[in-house]
Amino acid sequence: MGLVVQKYGGSSVADAEGIKRVAKRIVDAKKNGHQVVVVVSAMGDTTDELIDLAEQVSPIPAGREFDMLLTAGERISMALLAMAIKNLGHEAQSFTGSQAGVITDSVHNKARIIDVTPGRIRTALDEGNIAIVAGFQGVSQDKKDITTLGRGGSDTTAVALAAALDAEVCEIYTDVDGVFTADPRVVKKAKKIDWISFEDMLELAASGSKVLLHRCVEYARRYNIPIHVRSSFSGLQGTWVSNEPHSDEKGPKVEQAIISGVAHDTSEAKITVVGVPDKPGEAAAIFRAVADAEINIDMIVQNVSAASTGLTDISFTLPKAEGRKAIDELEKAKAAIGFDSLRYDDQIGKISLVGAGMKTNPGVTADFFKALSDAGVNIELISTSEIRISVVTRADDVNEAVRAVHTAFGLDSDSDEAVVYGGTGR
Ligand code: ADP
Ligand code: ASP
Ligand code: MG
Q1: 403 C-alpha vs ligand 3 centroid, how far in Å?
Q2: Domains of the chain, start order
Q3: Residue 72 CA: which ligand is closest?
Q4: Which one of 129, 163, 280, 301 has the lowest number of neighbouring Cβ atoms within 10 Å?
Q5: Ligand 3 center–CA 152 separation, angstroms
């Protein structure tokens, strides 16, 4: 029996009962002969509550202090979990990200892991302990400041530790039974996927399926770590995310689906730069200003310029959380770039259809747009990759659009409704 890394999300450890339930599960894995490393998130909606608190004190909190605050959430759950395990008669030790050797760059609030040196975790395991690690945090290599990895970052901590410790699997325990063909909170008829490739999972995650974080899947693909996403509330098999179709002893290999699923995302906003001179260098200047502020953008569209004025509009989407910073940066560069004005719209949503079969099925795009038009949903922006089509619509239309597309592509399950065991969906 080898080493397993298990990650428990916030909804799995939302209260004392949850912590005790999870502790039992961890002890069972240990009793089965595994060495167990656990990565834990903050309890319930603690991180959101800490963010709200920070914003009451300062509208744009300093990155270093913000990270120091947010990491407190995971410290609470890791210590309580270690106590609950000890109470069951097993040895456990908790570690902060820094103590566990999670070394990052120094970009506060969205640091990247650059190295993992889990010496203390190894020692704890060798001494017979269960090691509990605080997710979503590390320490910067140069300044030795505490950093966080961005929302949902405990998934990345888990895979990074699994890679560094050469674990046989990284189990991600959450509040649904696995990865579904759409968010089960929105589509009751969503189907659980038994196996999905890293490639399709990367696209789903990048398109907003927050069941796994994009960076975590990237990391797992790079180090070829199989991920098993499953519920901490049931004993069911979940979804395997790996390179090769997963086969278990009982059944044949699972085939790659043509369409893997529908993802949605309401966490983005749209900025339109109005009245941009239609000449070389303008787009470069706009996106340089945004990039210099470390803001990642998603979709871009440029209108045809009006012949009479020689002016055009450029729209792009970005995380809502970065909207204010982007507007400030563009305002600062307004004179140099020479546009008229900025428009900010945070009432948008994105719907994406993902599947490797898109490469070879030319009708998919047409069917996708037909499903949206039948549902009366207006499309504002479009972007595509080889295995994904995404559109931006009004935020209010998103849930309806996801259901319409899910049905149109024959993804609805004809058996049970998908179960959501916990969490607030926040
Ligand atoms: P955790 O607290 O365990 O990290 P998250 O809230 O980050 O949990 O992720 C689990 C949630 O992801 C589910 O409750 C579900 O609402 C949402 N979700 C979105 N898309 C999907 C999908 N395709 N399959 C499963 N869950 C999804
Ligand atoms: N607690 C952090 C968050 O809510 C990290 C995580 O849960 O993965 O984003
Ligand atoms: Mg998560």
Answers
A1: 22
A2: 3-245 (3.40.1160.10)
A3: 2
A4: 280
A5: 4
